[in-house]
Amino acid sequence: MSEQKLFFNDLKAKRESQNISLEEISDFTKIDIKFLIAIEDGDFGCLPDVYMRLFLRSYCKYISADDEQALNDYEFYTIGSKTESKTFSIPLEPDDIDTNIDQKELNLPQVPTAKIVTIVITVIILIFTLFLISNIDSDSSPKSDNSNKLNIKESSENLKIVQYSSLPDNSPLTNLDFDANNLIAGNKKKLVASDPFTFRVEALAQTKINVNSGPIIRNKVMEKGQVEIFPIKDKISYDFWSAQHIKCSLNDIDLTEFFGSEDNSIRGWFTTKDLSLNYNFYKQSL
Questions:
Q1: Sequence-distant (≥ 6) Cβ neighbours of residue 59 within 8 angstroms
Q2: pLDDT digits (tens, 9 = 90+) for 197-248
Q3: How far is CA 124 from the centre of its chain?
Q4: Cα–Cα distance measured from residue 242 to residue 266, given in angstroms and rounded to the nearest whole number
Q5: pLDDT tens-digit readout, 5-62
Q6: Segments of the chain assigned to CATH 1.10.260.40
Q7: Edge-first strand listing for the sheet containing 183-190
Q8: 3-106 CATH
Q9: What is the phi/psi pair of residue 199, to 5°?
Q10: In 3-state terms, what secondary structure has residue 198?
C-alpha cells in the first residue's frame, strides 16, 4: 500500500476537505485529540486494539466516512488481512452519528444470573443484620437524665424530637409579656369555618396561656398533655407564652401552619363576624 493510498491519509484528506477540525471531533466524541492525531498518522499502537477500533469508528462516522471499510483497512494495515480499500462516499445524517461503545466490540465477560442473585441476597442480608444490631444497641443504651426534657411533637408528615424551653416562673401572662418593643411580626388570615366555633388548645409541654372566649376565661399554667376547649360566640382573644409548646385548632383547622413552631410568644384574636384570625409574634419576656 503506497503512501498516497494509505487509508488514514484518505481519512485525513476527507476531514480537511470538509473543513472539520480535530478539536470539533474531540468535543463531540469526547475522544482525546492526541488519539485522533494518532489515527491520522497511522500510529495505532498507542492504544489497545478494542479502544482504537471504537475511536476509529466514531471518527469515521463524524466525518461521514465508511466506518466498516475503515475498520477493514485498519485490520489489513495492522495484521495483514486481505481486504480491498473503498472510497469514503457513504453520507451520514447527524442523527446517525453514534458515539456509544459497541458492547460486542468491547467483548466484556458476561456475569451469570445466578451469581448476580447471590450477590444481591448477600447484600440484603448484611443490611438487615446491621439494622438489627443497630436496634439492639439503641434499646440497651442507658437513658439520659435529661430525657424528661425531650418530647415528641407529631405532625401529619413526620415525627421529630423537640427540646422544649422551660418556663421562667408560674406567674400568669400579662400585658408586660407582650411589650411592643418585643414585637417581631404580625399577620392576618381569613378562615373558612362555620358555626358552631370551637377553639382547642393542647399543651405539648408545660406552658402558659391566657384565653378569653366570653363564656370561658383561662389564664393559667398548663401541664403537658392538658387540653382546654373554648366555645366562641362572637370573639376569642388568646395569649400563648410559646408557639412551640402548644397545638391549637379552630373547628377542624390546624392553626400550626399559621403559628409555626418557633419558641416565640403569640398574642391574637378571632372574630366570627368576618372569620378573621389575627396573630402577632413577640420575643419572650424572661
A1: 11, 25, 29, 31, 36, 39, 65
A2: 998 999 999 999 999 988 899 999 999 999 999 999 899 999 988 999 899 9
A3: 24
A4: 7
A5: 699 999 999 999 999 999 999 999 999 999 999 999 999 999 999 999 999 999 999 9
A6: 3-106
A7: 183-190, 276-282, 265-271, 235-240, 207-212, 217-222
A8: 1.10.260.40
A9: -110, 120
A10: strand
